[in-house]
């Protein structure tokens, strides 16, 4: 009998080009996504060495990190403009498809890959961006790489990779009403820490994961890197196949059915062994908010900010003290007493159509608190168009939200969408690092529903107490 | 890439855990299209205040650490964004060796592609080194061939490094050049692949 295998091992075996002793394996890369910030030096490297892109048709580029999300016909930031122009020149020279700033497919690279059907089960997918783990939601092995590796993939369509260890993140039970995929992944990182996934590929399993929609699965896999894991994935199932059916780059007709029967084989076999397993019961999870300066510093909304006086470990105590000082919070302060000045709904974690629908359902008929500036940045031009067809833009605008064009925006504040120093933002993004949304800015991560509720109230509240339980 | 065989240099201690690449190089400096010139922006928001003046309370600004080339840091160094600008900034500033209890995976890969030696040592050894570098002008010697770190006071520690990374660093190799020697295997793989 053949030994049961995890999906990770199956994908690995299928993509190994060279295997030699005392070396990583040479892995074939199916899809390489490219953006303006981490690619210019890679293309320049190719040019200097007189090398070509080996498989332009396996490469797809867009601009997302520093595109303006308003008034984008003229880009005032000269350095950013140069970077976008450089990508345009590079894509033309090396024959790579580009969803440029005015293209209907433009958007955050981790939103458009799935949306176009480029992301498919069993693929190896890389991008010079750590949130490439998002694509793992489809049962793809997808991970972020540095610019040297971007150049390597462009030139060879391969990467030298050591076979990762496997970690089963098993989530049994069901999420309560008003508790989202974002709360789930924040709770996982809060419980197991920001480095429990280092050296591993995560596979999310269990009843709670099976019940998630594709867009919810993307939210979970997206933040695998915040747990230290370069990649996190979910074995594909009917939910995956139905999402892919009819997408532009997915197979069509009989080829689709053939692909589905192949994809079915990918799922982790019954009885396959992992190097490590962690468990969490979904029914125990409440809506989460981060209070500190890394995503592991998060708590249920009913909790109070930690008190460093009660922490014995010296280093732990110091990092809590540093975080509280940076965040301008008092020990033991209730999370629901934290007032915010900004709300950002967007990013590769939470800017898809279902995220916008859920946020809109919370604010429907209400007004943004007078001391809050709130904005919605759809993940792609397509998401924006769809939201407008559904009238969501009107719901947001009537409430007092700004309605923007697609990009990474305030998640990392490379464009003009910046939180001023000392001010506080409820953000649906993925990183609450010091200065992430602007030098001195204070970020609190939360779900779209929680961020929307905070926009209305001007402080964090339990969304389950202020909104009808449609979420 | 410059080969690195042995290194002897002044140590700078950064006793923080989970130093993310947003701290190593903030996003406002990622718009350049060159690999060079990022050292001036290293740890920018810690080194400089809102008026771009050096912060005296950030130790890297102290004269005693001028010319430091060995960085000792807390656990999970380099977590977060995949930006290779982080090792570019460290290298351009002058750091050739980084020692920590652990490194984030993407950052670790990125260091080795740029000729920076990232060494994992146990927490207690890292604590000892941090302590030495805080009180003294402290010099460490690193021998990659022998996989050893030592000082002049009798401290010595062995470290592990994957054989492949060691080989690449010792010889300063161009990885793409090596991979292209496997071009036939890649072509063959592509022909049978579906």
From TrEMBL, chain A:
This is 3-isopropylmalate dehydratase large subunit. Pathway: Amino-acid biosynthesis; L-leucine biosynthesis; L-leucine from 3-methyl-2-oxobutanoate: step 2/4. Pfam families: Aconitase. [4Fe-4S] cluster binds at residues 348, 408, 411. Its cofactor is [4Fe-4S] cluster. It comes from Terribacillus halophilus. It catalyses: citrate = D-threo-isocitrate; (2R,3S)-3-isopropylmalate = (2S)-2-isopropylmalate. NCBIfam families: leuC, PRK05478.1, PRK12466.1. Binds 1 [4Fe-4S] cluster per subunit. Residues 9-458 form the Aconitase/3-isopropylmalate dehydratase large subunit alpha/beta/alpha domain. It comes from the Bacteria. CDD domains: IPMI (cd01583). HAMAP family: LeuC_type1. Signal peptide: none annotated. Heterodimer of LeuC and LeuD. It is an enzyme of class 4 (lyase). GO terms for molecular function: 3-isopropylmalate dehydratase activity; 4 iron, 4 sulfur cluster binding; aconitate hydratase activity; metal ion binding. Catalyzes the isomerization between 2-isopropylmalate and 3-isopropylmalate, via the formation of 2-isopropylmaleate.
Automatic annotation (TrEMBL), chain B:
InterPro entries: 3-IsopropMal_deHydase_ssu (IPR004431), Aconitase/3IPM_dehydase_swvl (IPR015928), AconitaseA/IPMdHydase_ssu_swvl (IPR000573), IPMI_Swivel (IPR033940), LeuD (IPR050075). Residues 1-123 form the Aconitase A/isopropylmalate dehydratase small subunit swivel domain. GO terms for biological process: L-leucine biosynthetic process. Keywords: Amino-acid biosynthesis, Branched-chain amino acid biosynthesis, Leucine biosynthesis, Lyase. It holds the Pfam family Aconitase_C. The keyword Ion transport does not apply. Pathway: Amino-acid biosynthesis; L-leucine biosynthesis; L-leucine from 3-methyl-2-oxobutanoate: step 2/4. Catalyzes the isomerization between 2-isopropylmalate and 3-isopropylmalate, via the formation of 2-isopropylmaleate. PANTHER family: 3-ISOPROPYLMALATE DEHYDRATASE SMALL SUBUNIT (PTHR43345:SF5), 3-ISOPROPYLMALATE DEHYDRATASE SMALL SUBUNIT 2-RELATED-RELATED (PTHR43345). This is 3-isopropylmalate dehydratase small subunit. It comes from Terribacillus halophilus. The lineage of its organism: Bacteria, Bacillati, Bacillota, Bacilli, Bacillales. The gene is leuD.
């Amino acid at each position: 009998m053949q030994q049961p295998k995890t999906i990770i091992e199956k994908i690995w075996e299928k993509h190994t080009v060279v295997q030699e002793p005392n070396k990583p394996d040479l892995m074939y890369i199916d899809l390489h996504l490219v953006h303006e910030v981490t690619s210019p030096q890679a293309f320049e490297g190719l040019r200097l060495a007189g090398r070509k892109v080996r498989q332009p048709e396996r490469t797809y580029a867009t601009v997302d990190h520093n595109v303006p999300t308003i008034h984008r016909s003229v880009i005032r930031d000269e350095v950013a403009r140069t970077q976008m122009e450089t990508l345009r020149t590079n894509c033309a020279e090396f024959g790579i498809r580009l969803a440029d700033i005015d293209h209907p497919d433009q958007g955050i690279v981790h939103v458009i890959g799935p949306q176009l059907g480029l992301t498919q089960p069993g693929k190896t997918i890389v991008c010079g961006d750590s949130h490439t783990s998002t694509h793992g939601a489809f049962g793809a092995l997808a991970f972020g790489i540095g610019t040297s590796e971007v150049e390597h993939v462009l030139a060879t369509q391969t990467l030298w990779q050591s076979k990762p260890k496997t970690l089963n993140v098993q989530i049994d039970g069901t999420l309560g009403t008003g508790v989202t995929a974002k709360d789930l992944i924040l709770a996982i990182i809060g419980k197991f820490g920001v480095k429990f996934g280092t050296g591993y590929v995560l596979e999310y399993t269990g009843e709670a994961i099976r019940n998630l929609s594709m867009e919810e699965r993307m939210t979970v896999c997206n933040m695998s890197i915040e747990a230290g894991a370069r990649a996190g994935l979910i074995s594909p199932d009917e939910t995956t196949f139905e999402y892919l059916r009819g997408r532009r780059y997915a197979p069509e007709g009989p080829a689709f059915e053939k692909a589905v029967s192949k994809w079915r084989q990918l799922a982790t076999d019954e009885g396959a062994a992992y190097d490590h397993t962690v468990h969490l019961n979904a029914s125990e999870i409440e809506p989460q908010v981060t209070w500190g300066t890394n995503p592991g510093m998060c708590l249920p909304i009913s909790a109070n900010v930690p008190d460093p006086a009660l922490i014995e470990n010296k280093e732990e105590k110091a990092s809590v003290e540093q975080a509280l000082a940076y965040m301008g919070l008092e020990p033991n302060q209730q999370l629901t007493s934290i007032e915010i000045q900004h709300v950002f709904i967007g990013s590769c974690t939470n800017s898809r159509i279902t995220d916008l629908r859920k946020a809109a359902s919370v604010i429907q008929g209400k007004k943004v608190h007078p001391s809050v500036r709130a904005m919605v940045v759809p993940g792609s031009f397509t998401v924006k168009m769809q939201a407008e067809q559904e009238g969501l833009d009107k719901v947001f605008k009537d409430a007092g939200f700004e309605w923007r064009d697609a990009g990474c925006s305030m998640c990392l504040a490379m464009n003009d969408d910046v939180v001023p120093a000392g001010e506080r933002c409820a953000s649906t993004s993925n990183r609450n690092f010091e200065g992430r949304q602007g030098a001195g800015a204070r970020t609190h991560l939360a779900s779209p529903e929680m961020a929307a509720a905070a926009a209305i109230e001007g402080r964090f509240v339990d969304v389950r107490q202020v909104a009808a339980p449609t979420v | 890439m410059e080969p690195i065989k042995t290194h002897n240099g002044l140590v700078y201690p950064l006793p923080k855990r989970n130093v993310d690449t947003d701290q190593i190089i903030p996003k406002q400096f990622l718009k350049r299209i060159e690999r060079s010139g990022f050292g001036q922006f290293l740890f920018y928001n810690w080194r400089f205040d809102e008026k771009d003046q050096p912060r005296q309370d950030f130790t890297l600004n102290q004269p005693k650490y001028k010319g430091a080339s060995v960085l000792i840091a807390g656990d999970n160094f380099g977590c977060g964004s995949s930006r290779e600008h982080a090792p570019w900034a460290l290298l351009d500033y002058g750091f050739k060796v980084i020692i920590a209890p652990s490194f984030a995976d993407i950052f670790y890969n990125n260091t080795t592609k740029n000729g920076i030696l990232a060494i994992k040592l146990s927490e207690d050894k890292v604590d000892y080194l941090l302590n030495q570098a805080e009180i003294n002008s402290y010099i460490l010697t690193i021998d990659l061939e022998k996989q050893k770190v030592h000082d002049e006071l009798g401290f010595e520690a062995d470290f592990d490094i994957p054989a492949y990374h060691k080989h690449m660093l010792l010889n300063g190799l161009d990885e793409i050049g090596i991979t292209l020697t496997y071009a036939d295997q890649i072509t063959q793989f592509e022909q049978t692949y579906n």
